[in-house]
Amino acid sequence: MASNDPLLQPYKLKHLTIKNRIMTTSHEPAYPEDGMPKDRYRAYHEERAKAGVGMTMTAGSAAVSRDSPPVFNNVLAYKDEVVPWMKKVTDACHEHGCAVMIQLTHLGRRTGWNKGDWLPAVSPSHHREASHRAFPKQMEDWDILRIIEDYADAAERMKAAGLDGIELEAYGHLMDQFWSPRTNTLDGEYGGSLENRMRFSLNVLEAIRKRVGDKFIVGIRYTADEADKDGISAADGIEISKRLQRSGMVDFLNVIRGHIDTDPGLTDVIPVQGMKSAPHLDFAGEVKKTTGMPTFHAARIPDVATARYAVAEGLLDMVGMTRAHMADPHIVRKIMAGREDDIRPCVGATYCLDRIYQGGDALCIHNAATGRELTMPHDIPAADEKRKVVIVGAGPAGLEAARVSSERGHDVVVFEAAPEPGGQIRLSAQSQRRAEMILIIDWRMAQCTARGVEFRFNTWAEAADIEAENPDVVIIATGGLPHTEVLENGNELVASSWDIIAGDVKPGQDVLVYDDAGDHAGLQAAEIIANTGAKVEIMTPDRSFAPDVMAMNLVPYMRSIQEKDVTFTVTYRLKDVERDGNRLRAKIGTDYSDLIKEKSYDQIVINHGTIPMDEIYFDLKPMSLNLGELDHKAFVDGHPQRITTNADGKFQLFRIGDAVAARNTHAAIYDALRLAKDL
Ligand SMILES: Cc1cc2nc3c(=O)[nH]c(=O)nc-3n(C[C@H](O)[C@H](O)[C@H](O)COP(=O)(O)O)c2cc1C
Ligand code: SF4
């Protein structure tokens, strides 16, 4: 029976019928190899296509010119060799009825000059972009003509690769650097009036149309309101939208509101957890109403209900659920099967996007199979033989191990000393802004409960309790305890960041937060303390503070704490703490010299990661078949663990997550998935 779900209705775009209204918007996961979308790339898109997504806009900022070197390992659309690789991606997705397009761009000033071919970045002005820091060359006439032809060449390559269409990127990149009076100081026919500032993009469209014809689909993803003073206003944006429509060369509009030249600007365009959901949806709807053009949009529409509303209300024709698909590539399949409750939620952690700006690949904080489709399953296959798996610890690692083991069909028992599951995640979620983190736990609890996993909360498991279960496999996922023993003297005088976050220690009035872990816990504790009106100094021995929080995640912290009495001190190391009446005297050194200074605080809080809670592991080790040993090769290659170093052992024993060494949520979940998928 045909569904009447608005999301599942087909959409006709020119000659192309897209089978439903859900798309993934262009997002470069930084998976290319040598600038080409090879096997890993194809497997990533194919997984979504298989599960029913209507359209995938591949790449993200695929570069049309040599002087647009990758900012985060982008596809190099200026090379002819891209054609066969893109054809493989396209064919694989088409096989499952998924429409495929690609985003093409020239980054203009939004890149660096010391990459790729060491060509200077170019832009219609010399103005530097805060995020990427290149001082661009102001473009000359021959740069303009050259790049117009580059766009047309790249479009022709994509047509040759069999794609259904292309999208031009015009927010923060070269095209809208021409549009915006903030970034275009050219004289003559490409600068000045709006007509002149739009000439470059219209020339590009003309050149593309000459090469690919009228039938090939060409759209544009553009800022219709830079939401920044002196930039493109909403009224300008509507005028730009109308001019694009009147040109007759554009088949769809993919609406963006905001500017991305700073980290805060980017975060308002792509909101992270704790920020408003779907903040630009109504605006995109206005553009659609005014222009009558096919309209796409994405910006934190993480749940099916909001996506459905966007289409049902006629605000959008195609709704982008991009990060939502990184968290769960099977969204459409689950909607079709009436299993929306099973969708693994995107919690807005934006670990995915923050990683690519740090030179990494895009990974989801709680789906370790995303981007690893060649080695890690999204659907866990059943095991040949049922086994008894006992897990100690119900944090993210323990729960992922329990989820995957139960999907394999095993009998699973989980011991947890606390009354509730979640471990460190439950603490992170104490802050209102990070409350969504608890969904990482809630989703796993629901999945485990549905598969009959037995939980024993409030139970401090001893080795004998585990033995009594007669397990085949024991997984220790007990996590860690805050590690504050970093001082030469005075370790007993300090509190840990977790003490503050958990509410076990009351914040002082004049506080040093010494953070040499550089993760969320340090800033989260500092924010809680600053919220009480206290004076807070955040100190790190590193060159910059909180490196593991990363760019977009830093924004909400800064917006919160910069308004308060908070200062930052970098490159100083806390050495020693002494009591001084009812205050504490800190001896502070530096790794750069023998300099020592003293300062007084009424409280000192240390954030230095965790030390493993591994007692039970070492108690069980002699009783195990493998003496706790992990075969790294099998673990990395995705094969079962078969070490037997103790023939008298009774069970296999493994340790995962922070119970091994302090890392992060993704590492804990990846440990669990790659171990448990082969049990
Ligand atoms: C890893 C990653 C890379 C991205 N790269 C691009 C890009 O190159 N071009 C682009 O237009 N948008 C890019 N985006 C933005 C997405 O297309 C989308 O607008 C954004 O994620 C908001 O939608 P969502 O809330 O559904 O994820 C990227 C997003 C992610 C997560
Ligand atoms: S890392 Fe966070 S924001 Fe990114 S896909 Fe995963 S849950 Fe969503």
The portion of residues forming beta strands comes to 15-25%
Radius of gyration equals 27 Å
Q: How many beta-strand segments?
A: 27
What topology, given as strand order, has the largest sheet? 3-4-5-8-9-10-11-12
List the quaternary state of the chains.
single chain
Large-scale geometry: globular
Low-pLDDT segments, ≥5 res: none
The residue-averaged pLDDT reads 97
Task: Report the helical percentage.
Answer: 25-40%
Which class of secondary structure composition applies to the elements?
alpha/beta
Number of helical regions? 23
What characterizes the major β-sheet? 8 strands, parallel, barrel
N-to-C span: 39 Å
**Ligands, deduplicated:** flavin mononucleotide, iron/sulfur cluster
Descriptive key words:
679 residues; alpha/beta; 8-stranded parallel β-barrel; 5-stranded parallel β-sheet; 23 helices; 27 strands; globular; binds flavin mononucleotide; binds iron/sulfur cluster
Give a short synopsis of this structure.
The protein is of the alpha/beta class and 679 residues long. 32% of the residues lie in helices and 19% in strands.
Give your account of this protein's structure.
- The protein has 23 helices and 27 strands.
- By secondary structure, it is of the alpha/beta class.
- The protein has an 8-stranded parallel β-barrel, surrounded by 5 helices. Strands 15-14-13-16-27 form a 5-stranded parallel beta sheet.
- α8 crosses α20 (551-561).
- The protein is globular and about 75 Å long.
- The mean pLDDT is 97.
- Iron/sulfur cluster binds at residues 323, 326-327, 346-352, 364-366.
